[in-house]
Amino acid sequence: MIFSSESFSRWKFEPIPANPGSILPPILPRTLTSFETLGFSLGGVLLWLGTAPAMHGALGIQALSVWIISTIAGVMLNLQVRHLGQIYPDVSGGTPNYTTRLLKAYPAIAQYSAIGYWLGWVSIPPMNAMILTDLIQTNLDPISIHIPTTFFRVLFTLLPYILAFSGTRALSILHSFFVLPAIGLIIAFCVFGFSWLTFFAHNSTIVPMQSASFSLEGWMKWYFMAVYAVYGAETGSSFVADSQRPRSTLNFIAGAAVLLPLVYIAGSWIINRLSPTDATSTFLVLVNSAQPFWGDAAPLLVTMLIASGALLSSATAVSNTSRILYQLARDRYIAPVFGVVSQRGVFAPALSLTLLFSLICLVWGNVDRIIMITGTGYLIAMIAFHLGMWHQRKSPESLWAKASLFFLCIEVTALIVGGMAWSWQDLLLGLSLPFIVRLLSWGMQQVKFAPFQSAWWFRLYQPKLLSEQTDFLSTQVISLLVIIAMTTSISWWVRSTLDNVAASIQSSLLILVLLVVAFLGVAIACWSSLPQVLAIDEAREMSEKTQAELSIKTEKLESTLQDLQNAQLHMVQSEKMSALGQMVAGVAHEINNPVNFIHGNLSYVKTSTQDLLTLVETYQQTFPNPPAVIQDQLDEIDLPFLTEDLTKLLQSMQVGTNRIREIVLSLRNFSRLDEAEYKAVDVHEGIENTLLILRHRLQATTKHPAIQITREYGDLPLVECYAGQLNQVVMNLLSNAIDALEEANHDRTYEEIEKNPSTIRIRTEVTEKNFVKIMIADNGQGVPESVRSSLFNPFFTTKPVGKGTGLGLSISYQIIAERHRGRLYYDSTFGTGTQFVIEIPVLQPDVLT
Questions:
Q1: 634, 639, 648: which is closest to 613 by C-alpha?
Q2: Can you give the C-alpha Rg of the chain in angstroms?
């Protein structure tokens, strides 16, 4: 599937600055394991098999000088590429796409060289197909059996592409499985051969005694070819971008550099010492070289080495070339369609173009000319790479600028002298091919042919409905029948053919059959059962991913619900405080005016009353014997009592108005509507005002004695806070404490309460962290264990219906924790009591919002 809704989480998209209407190809997900990238990193070492025997036949001992210089260049190239991979870990395609960054000031040269590098690898699958076909024919010649050459060449060319198109990662896994035995064999060939020549060969010397005339033209001609092989050991860089462990992959490139001298110098020295120069076949050259130390096992081991090496280098080429085109499309050097990648990692358009050119090379059929023409582009790429190193000599990208300049000169000379020595026509064709590919890419963007458009590939790989998919059971049965029939037929043919054949030939053919059948079997499975298995695995991963997404969404919904509840609480609290403040302010205002009038006039009433009583007393002294009518009136009103009671009445009225004024002041202080919302206040004053408002609930009644208040106030500074909200918290905690005490006293008699009085203790102090701590404790029944975890939850209450809303503690927690950056917690022992603790900073860092 390509860019399906399920695949977006695996791919990272970037905006395109040049064309807002298009989308960049996705960055590759890091799916390749270290073991898989190890195989691709070491696969380039096996290219020695295709070049060394031919160079040995042409140059003889001079071939060693070619290999020594080119190997030094190859080792330095690997280490330089490894360094660039650390700088560009997300660049796919490796060396040619690093070159485009080194030569970004010269985009035409960068594009030309990158396409040339791609062309160099395009010819590898058909060239190996010809080598494998010839190898099979060589082993069958002793028994006079001839195979259909064209069929086998096409089959071996298509095999790695079939695996790559399947999108099951089978190509990289199969490559990794066979690469270690192949590398092990080539190392064993070099180590055993060197040891045999050093310690056991009696008629041979380590250093050849014969001399050969030096030819610059011949030397450059084969350096031209050596570049094609020895420089190819850096292919691991192509897979850094989609490696799970890119650092390990880069270290494998350094490991391949270590193997280069052993294989290319020691191995070439061995075949120069042990194989005659008239041997032209790779198989015969290696068998002749290996027989002295491997004996009769040489044909078998060499067959396995050549077969596995050819198949593996073809797999490396197919995997490498598609990534080169992909990155070039990302960098806008070629048509965007080549950047299309399926969810399973299939570079379908890039693979299609590479397959087309591979088949063209196969139809051409001349291995030497194919290597010459496509190798020209590869050599141009290496020239551009070293040119980029010299161009960036003052930047961190370049490690050995002078060495790069030295090898650049050698490569330019090899291109001109060596290319002309091979064929000037082929040289010109090789130089023209990158332009032809660029022209083809440009034409694909101009022609409105559906497969040239990315949208066509999007639709092609859209997820299919279950009803549209092939029946799974039928597919497996048919695949099993095909594999059984193929295996039985091949086994029958091999058995009947090899009955009268020598054991050595039987073993070699068996190795070939095993390797070929292994690749064919995996190829069939890749297009039958493996996609189904992969689909099941993807469905499982998608299910797990969906479960994880649902879990995340559930958590987000729960968090949103909690935020919503908090917002509701905040609104309720704000509206409650606003309404309460306005009501309190209104009531206080309405009471305050008449009370002030009464309180202000009481002093005048007291004075006037005293004057009247003084006047009455003066009359009594002046007229001690009043008339009977007046005396009767005096007796009726009981003037002495009236005089005494009136004075006391006025004093009581004075106390009452003072009390009303204090209550009004407490209400105003509690609401704080006439002051700034945020300010430094006296916490103790707020506590006392709250106690005054709650005084009616603290006083004694006929059912219980008064609740005792114990004050243990510390020396507190003024505290920056929202005074009205802090008073509300103290009010909630004191009210809950009173409720708890009333509930605890419900089953106790008046006398029992007097013996163990209900008490609320209020204690304040300043902590070492400059926090004010307010502790409100009661000696009620405490909080039951079952409800402690829910105590601060919104709408949770243990009170009877109509007595509590479940918002008091939740709002209080919000006010302290969120508005004041403090803490509200409690400590309770069931049966003993509960203590709530408020902690807020004395100074807030900034004004809270």
A1: 639
A2: 48
Exposure b/e, 80-111, CB count within 10 A at least 16 = b: bbbbbbeebeebbbbbbbbbbbbbeebeebbb
pLDDT at residue 385 greater than cutoff 90: yes
| Residue 95 to residue 101: CA distance in whole angstroms | 10
pLDDT at 77: 92
Q: What is the DSSP string of 733-755?
A: HHHHHHHHHHHHTTTS-HHHHHH
Q: Is the pLDDT confidence value at 204 over 60?
A: no
Pairing of strands 678-681, 759-766: unpaired
570 in helix, strand or coil? helix
Which has the closest alpha carbon to 792: 738, 712, 729?
Answer: 729
Residues β-bridged to residue 827: 835
Judge whether 792 and 818 are in contact, CB under 8 Å.
no
Question: Other C-beta atoms within 10 Å of 706: how many?
Answer: 13
Quote the DSSP letter at residue 32. Answer: B
Q: What is the pLDDT of residues 517-537, one digit of tens each?
A: 666 666 666 555 556 555 666
Residue 412: per-residue pLDDT: 92
pTM value is: 0.62
Instruction: Tell how strand 759-766 and strand 708-712 pair up.
Output: parallel
Q: Is 243 exposed, middle or buried (0-12, 13-18, 19+ CB in 10 A)?
A: buried
Distance CA 607, CA 205 (A): 143
CA-to-CA separations, 510 to 131, 164, 300, 518, 713, in angstroms, rounded: 17, 26, 9, 12, 98
Model pLDDT, residue 549 = 80
- What are 825's strand-pairing partners? 837
Q: How far apart are CA 142 and CA 505, in angstroms?
A: 8
CA–CA separation, 814 and 98 (whole Å): 57
* Cα 739 from chain centroid (whole Å): 54
> What is residue 761's DSSP assignment?
E
